Amino acid sequence: MVERYALEPLKSLWSLKSQYERWLEVELSVIRAYEELKIAPKGTYEKAKKNAYINVDKILEVEKVVDHDVIAFIKVATSKMGEEAKFFHFGLTSSDIVDTANSLALVRATKLIIEELKKLSEILLTKALNFKDLPTIGRTHGVHAEPTSFGLKFLSWHAEIERNIKRLEFAMKEISIGKLSGAVGNYANIDPEIEKLALSFLSLKPTKVATQVIPRDVHAFLIEVFALVASAIERMAVEIRHLQKTETLEVQEPFKKGQRGSSAMPHKKNPILCERLTGMSRIIRSYVNAALENIVLWHERDISHSSVERYMFPDLTTTLYYMVIKTQKLIEDLVIYPENIQKNIEITNGLVYSQRVLLKLVEKGLTREEAYKKVQEIALYCWENKTSFKDAVKKKFNLTEDEIKEIFDPKYYLRNVNKIFKRFQ
Amino acid sequence: MVERYALEPLKSLWSLKSQYERWLEVELSVIRAYEELKIAPKGTYEKAKKNAYINVDKILEVEKVVDHDVIAFIKVATSKMGEEAKFFHFGLTSSDIVDTANSLALVRATKLIIEELKKLSEILLTKALNFKDLPTIGRTHGVHAEPTSFGLKFLSWHAEIERNIKRLEFAMKEISIGKLSGAVGNYANIDPEIEKLALSFLSLKPTKVATQVIPRDVHAFLIEVFALVASAIERMAVEIRHLQKTETLEVQEPFKKGQRGSSAMPHKKNPILCERLTGMSRIIRSYVNAALENIVLWHERDISHSSVERYMFPDLTTTLYYMVIKTQKLIEDLVIYPENIQKNIEITNGLVYSQRVLLKLVEKGLTREEAYKKVQEIALYCWENKTSFKDAVKKKFNLTEDEIKEIFDPKYYLRNVNKIFKRFQ
Amino acid sequence: MVERYALEPLKSLWSLKSQYERWLEVELSVIRAYEELKIAPKGTYEKAKKNAYINVDKILEVEKVVDHDVIAFIKVATSKMGEEAKFFHFGLTSSDIVDTANSLALVRATKLIIEELKKLSEILLTKALNFKDLPTIGRTHGVHAEPTSFGLKFLSWHAEIERNIKRLEFAMKEISIGKLSGAVGNYANIDPEIEKLALSFLSLKPTKVATQVIPRDVHAFLIEVFALVASAIERMAVEIRHLQKTETLEVQEPFKKGQRGSSAMPHKKNPILCERLTGMSRIIRSYVNAALENIVLWHERDISHSSVERYMFPDLTTTLYYMVIKTQKLIEDLVIYPENIQKNIEITNGLVYSQRVLLKLVEKGLTREEAYKKVQEIALYCWENKTSFKDAVKKKFNLTEDEIKEIFDPKYYLRNVNKIFKRFQ
Amino acid sequence: MVERYALEPLKSLWSLKSQYERWLEVELSVIRAYEELKIAPKGTYEKAKKNAYINVDKILEVEKVVDHDVIAFIKVATSKMGEEAKFFHFGLTSSDIVDTANSLALVRATKLIIEELKKLSEILLTKALNFKDLPTIGRTHGVHAEPTSFGLKFLSWHAEIERNIKRLEFAMKEISIGKLSGAVGNYANIDPEIEKLALSFLSLKPTKVATQVIPRDVHAFLIEVFALVASAIERMAVEIRHLQKTETLEVQEPFKKGQRGSSAMPHKKNPILCERLTGMSRIIRSYVNAALENIVLWHERDISHSSVERYMFPDLTTTLYYMVIKTQKLIEDLVIYPENIQKNIEITNGLVYSQRVLLKLVEKGLTREEAYKKVQEIALYCWENKTSFKDAVKKKFNLTEDEIKEIFDPKYYLRNVNKIFKRFQ
Questions:
Q1: Is D73 touching C (CB cutoff 8 A)?
Q2: Domain segments of chain B as ranges
Q3: Which CATH superfamily is domain B93-342 in?
Q4: What residues of chain B lie within 8 A of the CB of C315, using their CB?
Q5: C-alpha C178, offset from chain centre
Q6: Neighbour subunits, D (≥3 Cβ pairs < 8 A)
Q7: Which of B152, B238, B367 sits opposite A298 (nearest CB)?
Q8: Is D159 left (phi over 0), alpha (psi -120 to 50) or beta?
Q9: Which of D280, D303, D315 faces A272 most closely, judged by CB atoms?
Q10: Which residues of B are catalytic?
């Protein structure tokens, strides 16, 4: 976890203290189930809850001797208990606790991320609506193509976030499972009924079939979706970085009062947040392969996934949370320069309307092939000589003033934009 | 594509010829829509369909001049048309064709993969049921843990394949979209109605909002799920490789008559298919990062994703298809040695029953901590001295013959297995 | 391998025929060593060479029965031999042949790549020298920073290619090893002298210690360097794509006569080669993880690396070769627009000289902190109001006309450039 | 950074405090150069050194306002200086400091890693020599192949570590560069002589040509080699895990007194360190792609690499250091069971000598093909029927008692092992 990028409540979620508390939460829910199913005497749960002792330093100390974190936890947690200790961890194996608690943590982290993504999605939709009618130049291959709606950029991001929310919900549902089926997943020393009841207290469902652990494809899937979310944010960040390039300057990342862009060059305002988000996306994506490798554990499990997850779960969720939170503000306060946007449409002297000329000529009877050749010839000439394409078209083709006017109108390109927006209502 | 791993019908799906045919399929569906919406004269579609000319060599020849594959395709495809040529590609941009056709290919490939996965899933379930009652030793960390059901291995794989089928269906639904919205996705020269109708002929839906292309998160998501499927198969392959190790020898990959395991050592029978599948999974996983990087295209699109996809789409789908097909046979014909499975349970002289002794002692009044210490002491002694743990337990603890018998019975560990299986009915 | 990106001689290098020929090359070099060391009768080598029979279809046919490609090869290769067949593959295991032949192929491919990289490096240096004295705006964060030399861009690429050539040579030396030490690498049935002599005929050295195979870290290292080369090319490609953006337009990828940029928009000239190279780099990078996973083979080897390598070796080397060849031409014929380069320097109305003003004020006695604040204030004002920074500086600070002139001179920034270039002579 | 895996001195190396101290080290070395080259007055360096003020909390506080870490650092560091402050950061840009300091940190981390790798390499060589003459079964595909020397396993690891040390030294030499060439790398406001001299105080060399930053291929290369080291360790870890499998049990990871293998099963001793190392290797490998993506920065630099490096540099170096340190002890204290090693050779009833029978028959006049068929037939029969291959060979082939004895002798396979070891003297 990188301190400077760890925001609350994600940061605390991954503290050792929180981890032990989650482990206790799981252990206690099992005791409660034992009691409800009349295996443990009445009151066991309350006593266990009251006497459970969590002390991070103590646990770490014991771990040094036993070299096993769950055993150290159990020793300390039960150290102030009486009879009720007998039901603590009864019939369970370490992974029952660790894996179920991992699910709790991941579900909670994912919920927080989804919540913030929904806000981001709203912000994007609002921006999209605000700029629906502002023409901008569409760029393909980095080269001016044809005018389009500036709002469509935001709408496209909004749609991608919406898809990702759906995927996250799908993946979160999958990970909303626990596992209390013992050392090799066969319920040798615990009844499936205990598992079902105990997990219900945690809003989790039993894993349909487990080994010692919950199968890691479930975790990998969630992480894959995290990587999609990160990439979606990177896509926005890269677009903003492009639009903020000095020659283009259609938008600008918010720049705080007192902020400095460069230690050497006082004039600089840099899209540093967008660049940071771009880098973070690399980090998140880089974990996907590790998550996939974790699936292929040996036999009824090996523990190689564990060290991976100690890095991966906190890093991924805190980083992604940071990304989402920061992107909200980024989009909300994005500085937009409509006059530059408008100006940029026209810097090619009308070339961006070439397709409309082409289609007009086809309409007038030329084959597509003929029309293409004629228009390309003039277009490339104007491009090289920086002369007006509109004038050249006027001169070369037999078109009325009205036709010319209609062809060279950026608004034309927005005529169907409302139909697109309607899909999002 | 690696020739030796390319099976039909996947192999042909990715031939240049098939690609051009898919492009034509899309172009024609648009013409059909123009006709149905009365923009093109009646009969245009039939004429275009009849006169369309696909000739791979010709197209490649033209491409050498124009350096653009779709333009070369259009030139050749319309070269024998009359008036109807005017409606060919009318209002469209190359990506409308390429991307919609890509969706068609991916949907078709995914469908084939799902179909075969369902067969595999069935095979796994059958095997699971067949071996439900066979005790085997469960292994965690590669070390004997406790007995479990041999059938549970297959059931666990079955469940993972089932999860993956669901994910694939989810991802396939996402990719079942086309895009006919022109150069920058704003329907400047085509009506959304045309798109909707044309795509319906291809069983696709319109992309809610596109740039020049369908957003690449949709493709990346599908590929991520492919990677999960590959990893699921790798997990089976690695388990079989483990179980076929000479010291273990509980199963063996089918070995054909006449097959040779080694050019040097005539006695060898090697799990080469499982090893091949393991390697293939690395290939498939390795593409995920490339697929994720493809999401972040510049502005209304850059074409950097295209070269990636020329490798990725054929490689991934043919390789995965191969993996699924081969795994079916692998599982179906897997040689299983029940006597070795049984023998292996007992090679630790009863140590694998240590938890049951522990729990019995807790039942009898010891604290978990005391019981653990006592049992561990004896267990480690027996382990080192290769003496019978059962005998030691008898000697050390005050247990009746019946209790001992009950504790050291592998069947005990299977008593809840039926409850697990019931979840899959 | 993607047909359209496979150039000769790389393409043929990976044909099945070439592979069998390399295998034969290795087998024959062993026979030659047996003969030279008087183990095989005189003339055995010549006879074996003469009677060796390579027929791709036959070998594939036999493979279908024995399910082992090397055994099939041996059967066919020796099918027309007499007594000399006894020494064919004598004391060897399949991997001796396959791995040694793999080294041959990789060394040959790498040599070809290095050769072309050297040409590319020269082209870059020439361009660097040609544009050494042309001022251009340096951009950091995509935002104008300070003027610099246009030639430095090329020089920086040249230096990176030079570093990569050195790394490639280092890695190629490592992979210039063969392995003829038998089934588990202990020379059980072959003398190390035979290996040494046979490999010397192939310009290879013995692996110091092998298992059944050459350790895969050697291959992984080479592939890692391939990925560095690909990234170096991607860096150039991305820079060109940036400089070709319509608003910037300082360079343009060569555009062939007759070429078409878009099926819809006749005016388009797109940097499609650069975009293709960008995508290819993703492909090459994506293989690194697979190559690394190949290192961890089980015991004296498992064969999981083999399927990976059937994809990876041909794909990586042909793609990289294509990239290098295409980049040569790209750089050589790059269209450069000096007037646009010059124009772009000034679009910020002098803001890019802000550091020079800052340093001048420090020289005149202000603290860095004071100077920064003053200059930033003016700079941000001019930026927002699009007014001349030069005028503002003149008005605000007590500077002579000569000082102003000196500060706002792009040439100033090039005064040390020759010193940089001297490092490359 | 994962607390529990961060060992000193690596842990402190990456503290914020150490980072600021390194930045100061770079700044002061520049001032020292200014003084030595008579640009700063005599005594400036000593004064700056004495008055420099580093206070982590203060710097973080200032950063909150200026949103730029280097500017915050400069403000605080110079806050107690007098005139000498003028030369602090004079002519430099932030990246001059950050990148040069990064090199310092990476060089220092790499040196520590190399140092420990050398110890590990020695430990491996010693083990190799100790077990040189112990026969063990060689396993290919996980299946018994032929006997070999147990010491060769260690020797093979030793050789791989040696290769990696060489690569690390090569990569470390590359990264032993700094960069003090200003905002866009053209020495606009600083003389190359200052850079050369200042860097020499830090034992670094100038980057031959930089942009605003040191080109990231240099860092990526180092990280790629880190990934090779991690994979080498993973290879050992996986082998030990295999050999510790209950059925094989030839070695055992050291197990501390008081340690507990499982919370449920008191008998368990698990190779948890090896599994942890396996997982860590996944983490380290996963960063390679991110490091490669960092190469392709925009123009004279974008800062997207920075957030990546905040995770990557500390994580990679501390984790790798941990891995090396832990592996030393693992190998040194590895529990080895020679009797099990010996026993396992014979569990196939002599099948592992099949090649020797084959070669003997060829020697006696059979063709390789005939011999293979005959031996395979018997071998597969014995395998299936678990009968003695030695007896079958005796019965079937006309071999003397001495020939049989010679063929079925594991020592035979070690006869050339000394020749391999000689290569390492």
A1: no
A2: 11-90, 93-342, 351-407
A3: Fumarase/aspartase (Central domain) (1.20.200.10)
A4: 311
A5: 24
A6: A, B, C
A7: B238
A8: alpha
A9: D303
A10: 141, 262
CA of C136 to nearest chain A CA: how many angstroms apart?
13
CATH architecture designation of domain A351-407: Orthogonal Bundle (1.10)
Nearest Cα neighbor of D379 from D357, D354, D405, D355 is D354
**How many whole angstroms separate alpha carbon A289 and alpha carbon A208?**
25
Fill in the amino acid letter for A112: L
Q: Are A224 and A291 in contact (CB under 8 A)?
A: yes
Closest among C10, D69, D264 to A187, alpha carbons compared: D264
pLDDT band at B155 (very low <50, low <70, confident <90, very high): very high
A287, A304, A315, best to mutate vs chain D, most D CBs in 10 Å: A304
User: Distance (Å, rounded) from C-alpha C348 to C-alpha C383?
Assistant: 7
Pairing of strands D205-206, D177-178: parallel
Cβ(D238)–Cβ(C238) under 8 Å? no
Query: If you measure CA to CA, which chain C residue comes closest to B285?
Result: C290
Side-chain-side CA neighbours of residue A237 (13 Å):
30
- Percent of chain C having pLDDT more than 90? 84
CA distance B389 to chain C (A): 31
**D348 and B CB contact within 8 Å:** yes
Closest residue of chain D to B144, computed from CA coordinates:
D246
Q: How many residues does chain A have?
A: 425
Contact residues, chain D, for A294 at CB < 8 Å: 279, 282
A250-305 pLDDT, tens digit per residue, is 999 998 777 777 777 778 889 999 999 999 999 999 999 999 999 999 999 999 99
The pLDDT score that the predictor gives to residue D388 is 92
Q: What's the token pair of residue D189?
A: 């406001």
Contacts of B50 (CB under 8 A, 6+ apart): none
Among partner residues B208, B209, B298, which is closest to A242 by beta-carbon distance? B298
Q: Would the pLDDT of B257 be above 80?
A: no
D294 Cα to chain B: minimum distance (Å): 13
For C:108-147, CB contacts with D below 8 A are: 138-142, 145-147
> Is-contact A89 B368, C-beta < 8 A?
yes
Say which residue the tokens 């925001």 belong to.
A7
CA nearest to C10, candidates C282, C332, C323: C323
8 Å CB contact between A345 and A148: no
Cis, peptide link before residue C9, omega less than 30° from 0: yes
- Is the entire prediction scored with pTM above 0.95? yes
* Chain B residue with minimum CA distance to C93: B264
Task: State mean pLDDT over B370-398.
Answer: 90
Domain C11-90 CATH assignment equals 3.40.50.720:
no
- Average pLDDT over chain B reads 95
- What's the sign of the alpha-carbon dihedral C44, C49, C53, C55? positive
DSSP string over D96-156: HHHHHHHHHHHHHHHHHHHHHHHHHHHHHHHHHHHTTT-EEEEEETTEEEEEEEHHHHHHH
In this complex, the chains that touch B, judged by 3 or more CB pairs closer than 8 A, are A, C, D
Q: How confident is the model over B175-179, as a mean pLDDT?
A: 98
Place of tokens 């040509």: D209
At B132, give phi and psi (nearest 5°): -55, -40
